[in-house]
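Hi P.,

Sorry for the delay on this. The queue was packed all week, but I finally got your sequence through. Input first:
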Amino acid sequence: MQANINYAKRSSGISALALILILVFGVIGSVGIANLNQKLEGFDVDEQAIADAIVAGIVIPDMPEIDTGKLDELWEGVYEGKIEELENASFVAGMIQFLEDNNYPEKEIDKLSTVEGCDVLLGYLEEQAETNSSNSILFFGEKDDLYEFLEGEYEDIESVQFIKEYENDREFNVINLGLDDEDDREVELSGVIKVLVTYDDGNEEYKDKVYINSVVTSDDGELEAEVTYSLSN
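Then the structure:
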């Protein structure tokens, strides 16, 4: 399992600080030039040359580079528990939406509330596929989203059968942890499954890189997922 954390945008104060320094030095330089002009009245003085020399003498030090990697590590350490909690809840939301989109029995979907429960169901479906227990195999038909997607990729499909999910290929990208407002929560996640495609002529072909991509957001405190499919990550 991989997790990429992309937390709230940091606003940089470097440009603002540089501008303030320039303005301050500019004011000081202007006052200094005015006083100098009063003292040098009657002399043939190149005022612009003096002003240029003052500006040239102002050296603004380079701001040190910020190691964002260390800040990322610190942030992940502080909010490790919240990150894991949101990732787990997002996986459940994505799993439920996937099953609903593919017309899995509602009474079975209602039982899912934890990652462990989802893993048990996936393990059961994989076992049924291995033993070819046709009454319990997860098939995708014409009214199912995954079938419709693959039908657009391959011609003359009759059915699609779930074979397995690659648990180690689950990836999470936390866009917003929702620290200020839980309805700001947003997570992108993806997983990979293997399916068996049966064509109208009876031929079968395994497809072991079907990606399930979910964008999970929050509405009134409830996580909601939008699920799409692709053949490449």
